[in-house]
Design a protein that fits this description.
By secondary structure, the chain is mainly β. It is built from two helices and seven strands. Helix content is 11%, strand content 34%. The longest helix is centred in the first third of the chain and has 12 residues. It is elongated and about 90 Å long. About 6% of the residues have low confidence.
Length: 140
């Protein structure tokens, strides 16, 4: 076990250059850094699955729109006022977000579905079945 001497300045002075930049960004954005949820994309044989990592939200907090082959997901993660008063250190992000994805032509847009559970918004994009185009052309 290693003993570390407590330095009260550590609570007020950024430890690294990255912490300093982050604190400046937070100050300029009214206490919250720009919120861009992480996205994992999985492709299977029959569908593509998007997973947005957005803990602490409700399914009503999301807006999902599809227009001109662009899937747009937006929402806002809000820090409650009673928690703002108690906040000592903030490492997670809050605020409005928007993520947009251009869909390929092989997505069945009428069958897209979304589900929110355990802090993950899952959007399933079913793929259309590929039609094999075989034709014999006789040379005359």
């Amino acid at each position: 076990m290693t003993l570390v001497r407590y330095n009260p300045l550590n609570d007020f002075v950024p430890g690294t250059f990255g912490d300093l930049i982050e604190s400046v960004l937070r100050d300029k954005t009214n206490g919250s850094a720009n919120f861009k949820p992480a996205v994992d994309i999985f492709k299977g044989e029959k569908e593509i699955e998007l997973q947005l990592i957005v803990p602490g939200m409700k399914k009503e907090d999301f807006s999902i729109n599809l227009e001109n082959n662009v899937l747009e997901i937006s929402g806002e993660r809000i820090l409650k006022d009673e928690l703002k008063e108690k906040l000592q250190k903030q490492e997670s992000n809050y605020g409005k977000f928007r993520r947009a994805f251009t869909l390929s032509e092989d997505i069945n847009q009428e069958s897209i579905s979304a589900n929110y559970a355990d802090g993950i918004l899952t959007i399933k994009l079913p793929l259309t079945e590929k039609k094999e185009t075989k034709s014999m052309i006789k040379v005359s």
